[in-house]
Amino acid sequence: RILVLDFGSQYTQLIARRIREAEVYSQILPCTVPLATILAYRPQGIVLSGGPSSVYEKKAPTVQKELFDQGIPILGICYGMQLVTHLSGGEVARSKHREFGRADLMIDDPGGLFRGIGGDGATTVWMSHGDRIERMPPGFRSIAHTDNSPIAAMKREDATRRIYCLQFHPEVAHTPEGATLLRNFVYDICGCKPTWTMRSYADSAVEDIRRQVGTSRVICALSGGVDSSVAAALTHRAIGDQLTCIFVDNGLLRTGERDQVQKTFASQLHLDLRILDRTKPFLAALKNVTDPERKRKIIGRLFIKSFEAESKKLKNIKYLVQGTLYPDVIESVSFKGPSATIKTHHNVGGLPARMRLKLIEPLRELFKDEVRVLGKELGLPDEIIWRQPFPGPGLAIRILGSVTKERLMILRGAETIVDQEIRSAGLYREIWQAFAVLLPIRTVGVMGDQRTYEHVVAIRAVTSLDGMTADWAKIPNEVLGRMSNRIINEVKGVNRVVYDISSKPPSTIEWE
Ligand code: XMP
Q1: If you placed Cys at 76, which of 81, 185, 197, 316 could pair as Cys (CB 3.0 to 4.6 Å)?
Q2: If one looks up domain 404-499 in CATH, what number appears?
């Protein structure tokens, strides 16, 4: 395995993903972990990420210098390079020109890290740094340069203590040959073999789950989203009927959602699936509630209550399956500080302690795209694998103001049309989320010769990589036009449609 030490770069996850794309397992640790912990992982190579700090600042993050003398090959990227320089007796200084963007890299030492790169001696790379290497540490040699950086890459000439450093970012798409460079590092320099595939992952996860669970019973809160679906399918492959899945229909789902879960998991995968219809208590609890946070809290609490009551009917339950992904794990140990609560998320996080359950989190090591490949491997249908995210509180947070049966019906109608049009325009996968929001106001319109005074629906569609930041989607006007026409014509009670053109930040994806 390869360890990536995180110094706070926005690209750290990308480094790990690129290495995994080379079918080599890689894992991220905060740079603050002690040397002994790093060594306990027995890494075949270590990558030091970039980061926003300057090595000469007082509180700059660092590593124990002894890390460089363990015989483990090291690749320092950007801040990683500056740190190697600083700790090994070289000199880093603020650069006169901040270098940001594409640059032509002249390769002075072909082969090694640069094997097969830059056919005519040069290749395009992505630079993003304010500091630069003034003087290399003893034992290092420059292996590439750009017009602005005489030392854009360097290496230590010591066969048993190999260190390679890059001023540019090989992990980003703007460095077209960066993936090759990272492959050269992990295969040629670290000696890793490409054995980490989703098939091998599934096999070993199945073994792990069997060993962990023994003869106990396991439950899972299935939502129909990619993560809980893949986690459930994987666990089911491992322990079959020892797993029971519970799907809570809170009455806030979209058209056909419950049927699809039923069809996929009960009819096709033969999972022990219990579907609870809790529409009535959820709608009763939400009556006249307009405050978004109150809605979220009520729904979260009621969900836990429903789930707990149902699981009490089962005997010998010791474990709960959760679809926690690797980015959540990194987030909770990340090098950055905690952030403010913007919205109370509805999730099953509180369940294990409350019900005294141990956790099975078979996706803890995976990124979203890897989970999709795994889902395919496990035979899940595309509709599940490629499903856009849908929030736990469901349509309740897309009906601004109070939630009623009538308003749910209107929103469902509009939502179905947005979904159909996005799919038939071939945009479903490239758009992170597209949905309808029902606004708590009415406006005047004219239909036939009659005055109307009806609801307004907003369409929200965003592109995003992880939901943390998002841009409003530039959907072709014809598609928007078709949605608007169909919603106004087909959904009773709506006479106006608007399109949300705000990005996140400062807006959020959901309206509540
Ligand atoms: P916001 O609105 O905060 O949403 O920009 C970011 C992403 O999170 C989803 N979301 C939720 N997911 N439980 C969830 O499982 C929730 O309570 C919840 N609230 C928002 C949202 O759909 C978007 O993908």
Answers
A1: 81
A2: 3.30.300.10
**Distance of CA 484 from the midpoint of ligand 1 (Å):** 25
Q: What is the reported pTM?
A: 0.85
Q: For residue range 38-95, list pLDDT tens digits in order.
A: 999 999 999 999 998 999 998 999 999 999 999 999 999 999 999 999 999 999 998 8
276 phi and psi angles, rounded to 5 deg: -105, 125
pLDDT in tens, 265-288: 999 999 999 999 999 999 999 999
Q: What is the ipTM of this complex?
A: 0.99
**Ligand 1 centre distance from Cα of residue 500 (Å):** 17
Residues 6+ apart with CB under 8 A from 2: 19, 24, 25, 26, 27, 43, 44, 45, 46, 47, 186, 190, 192
Instruction: For ligand 1, say whether the CB of 388 is within 6 Å of any of its atoms.
Output: no
Active site residues: 78, 169, 171
The yes or no reply on domain 200-385 and CATH 3.40.50.620 is yes
CA nearest ligand 1 atom 22, residue = 391
Q: For the domain made up of 2-189, give the CATH fold.
A: Rossmann fold (3.40.50)
